[in-house]
Description:
Mean pLDDT: 91
Helix content: 40-55%
Distance between the termini: 65 Å
Strand content: 5-15%
Binding site for L-tyrosine: 37, 175, 179
Subcellular location: Cytoplasm
CATH topology of the largest domain: Rossmann fold
Order of helices and strands: HEHEHEHEHHHHHHEHEHHHHHHEHHEEEE
Function: Catalyzes the attachment of tyrosine to tRNA(Tyr) in a two-step reaction: tyrosine is first activated by ATP to form Tyr-AMP and then transferred to the acceptor end of tRNA(Tyr).
Structural class: alpha/beta
CATH superfamily of the largest domain: HUPs
Number of helices: 19
Binding site for ATP: 238
Number of domains: 3
Subunit structure: Homodimer.
Amino acid sequence: MSEFNLVKTLRDRGLISHITNEDNLSKLIRNNSISLYCGFDPTDESLHIGHLLPLITLKRFQMAGHRPIILIGGATSLIGDPSFKEKERIFNTNNNIDIWSKKISKQISCFLDFNLGKNSALLLNNNMWFNKMNILSFLRDVGKYFSINTMINRAAVKQRIMRPDQGISFTEFSYNLLQAYDFFILNKQYQVDLQIGGSDQWGNISSGMHLIHRKSKKEVYGLTMPLLLQSNGIKFGKTESGTIWLDAKKTSPYKFYQFWMNIEDINVYYFLRLFTFIKISEINRREQKKHIENQIIYDKSFLAKNITRLVHGKEQLLAVERITEFLFLKNIDHIQEVDFQQLKQDGIPFIEVDNIKDLQEALVLTSLAQSRTQAKNMIISNSVSINTKKIRKNHIFNSQDKLFGKFTLLSRGKKNHSLLCW
């Protein structure tokens, strides 16, 4: 019997929103190597930071000797989970879902170990069983175990039913049963005892446990984690605005890093507990020192580096550090051409240029100044830089201003930048 209590560790780190029969689950995973799963519907080409907690939690279970199973919802993504969505999702094509399934599978493979013996991660797609099932079989073998009264009263459904302008279609209403059947099949064929997910999945997870209990007379478990919310209280999702993607082509590693650097101070140590594998004792030690000058900034950087390395790898973290050094510490020595592609993607505003008369015109074109007169005054007041070097008079651009023959960084003060792409 292991002395390590994984459930207690998850709770201490703030990673549990709901859990069923905590004592029994704790004993089960302390005495046995179990299989657990989490589902991901490929409704876009990339996962986002809202998916990080389930992925990291799966990794924690694997590190503790358990077998994580990833279920790609090739079938369920054709329907779309209505949980706490204000309106019906737009249906996606089979072709898109196939492409997105492959991309998301590749992303997930970076988080888990698929070559670890008996607790190697396993990746499945629920097309494997739903493509073989017809509607009559589903209604007889699954639907008969569920009460419409109970399903209507689930918070995720009730929210939509109470909105006469939206309502909920039978298609979306059936999603709950589809996910329940996923859990049933995984328990039957792969001995999965635990499903995890975000707290918005509690209704779906509960339905899966109910179906297994009714059909197989087995006890299985559910565990959910808190949702990652934006500052406006809306959860991070693929259909919400302000999404921070895990795909470097959709959100550059630099912008990803800056997201964590710009979180509210109150969340720094909470996020260190949620998203990193740093010992709680070390996080507590840091939190006790948070009132020391610049300690919060240092710990934000510590958080940002840890998560960026986890998601994007060591090389991309080094690129982020070069860009940060260039923009904020005015050190141009280590910047590389590829780093400017990140800045151009989503790091700072940029404009494509061919010929610019002078610095004053450039400041106006980049909206760093509203007029040539304002630009002139900014230059005189020593607040304008070209490639981190202060400029004290109007300037005519030359080849030396074009880093790698392509890029010029204009700055107004410390935080306002724009990139000229020649």
